[in-house]
Design goal:
Protein name: ABC transporter ATP-binding protein
Keywords: ATP-binding, Nucleotide-binding, Transport
Number of helices: 9
Number of domains: 2
CATH superfamily of the largest domain: P-loop containing nucleotide triphosphate hydrolases
Family: Belongs to the ABC transporter superfamily.
Strand content: 5-15%
Distance between the termini: 24 Å
Strand order of the largest sheet: 6-7-8-3-9-10
Bound molecules: adenosine-5'-triphosphate
Order of helices and strands: EEEHEEEHHHHHEHEHEEH
Pfam families: ABC_tran
GO molecular function: ATP binding; ATP hydrolysis activity
Shape: globular
Number of strands: 10
Radius of gyration: 19 Å
Helix content: 25-40%
């Protein structure tokens, strides 16, 4: 994948990955290695300049409606209330769009339940600018989940949150995954988060990014936060950190 024509930035090269339906994978790698680019290609938000992306047996040629997405910068619409922002995908994605008029109360109750789950009960009628950045991020997670997407694409969705809120939301996400088993691709810089949440952690090389290694995570679910203090868990985190340091060192020596 190259941005800006033949002379432009080569963001991804020879990137290949397979994700099974219902699997939870995390993607980690040095800054600028192309993780967000990978997300844009999979969700069809950006066309690939080479290669193909297949989701649910079909080649991706435009934005995917089966995907729920949340990004590091919550992109809430400033003129809509929090509740109306969370309900936005229901106005766009079928079959919800067709049902929304007749079943608005049930859909609204669901959106309110999600907001409650992430600690935003009471803020439904506020506007995004009346909420802190972390609260907006939580609302954007609700918006990604409200239409029960079969594919959940999360690009550093917890990046701007304090550690306690972040850990709470890991468990919210784990609950959602256990209840509905969507396929999840989570991009994160937080290796503890990757190991806590994912079945498999994929490690990318420095730009142009490609998948250079993967690490299966052996723990059954539900996982509890105590797990993150265990020696074996921490050893996995260290192993990932070493791999990424190697990838960064390789980038530095290539640049010389
Ligand atoms: N729209 C764009 N136009 C031109 N170049 C871009 C564009 N988006 C990203 N790039 C370049 O592609 C490369 C990969 O960017 P990307 O955002 O995918 O990396 P990332 O791994 O998500 O980074 P980070 O971890 O810092 O968020 C970078 O060198 C970036 O400058």
């Amino acid at each position: 994948m190259r941005y800006g024509g033949v002379e432009g930035t080569l963001a991804l090269r020879g990137t290949s990955l397979d994700v099974a339906e219902g699997e939870f994978i995390a993607v980690v790698g040095p800054s600028g290695c192309g993780k967000s680019t990978l997300m844009r290609l999979v969700t069809g938000l950006w066309p690939s300049t080479e290669g193909t992306v297949i989701v649910d047996g079909r080649e991706v040629s435009g934005p995917l409606s089966i995907a729920g997405m949340a990004f590091q910068n919550p992109t809430l619409l400033p003129w809509r209330t929090i509740l109306a922002n969370v309900m936005l995908p229901l106005e766009v994605v079928q079959p919800h769009r067709g049902r929304l008029r007749g079943e608005r109360a049930a859909y609204e109750a669901k959106a309110r339940d999600l907001l409650k789950l992430v600690g935003l009960a009471g803020f439904e009628g506020k506007y995004p600018w009346q909420l802190s950045g972390g609260m907006q991020q939580r609302a954007s997670l609700c918006r990604a989940l409200v239409h029960d997407p079969r594919l959940l694409m999360l690009d550093e969705p917890f990046g701007a949150l304090d550690v306690f809120t972040r850990e709470d939301l890991w468990d919210v996400l784990q609950e959602v995954w256990l209840a509905r088993k969507p396929t999840v691709i989570l991009v994160t810089h937080d290796l503890k988060e990757a190991v806590y949440l994912a079945d498999r952690v994929l490690i990318m090389s420095a730009r142009p990014g490609r998948i250079i290694a993967e690490r299966a995570v052996p723990y059954p679910r539900p996982r509890r936060l105590d797990l993150t203090y265990e020696a074996e868990f921490q050893a996995i985190v260290h192993e990932l950190r070493d791999r990424i340091s190697d990838a960064r060192r390789a980038e530095a020596s290539d640049a010389r």
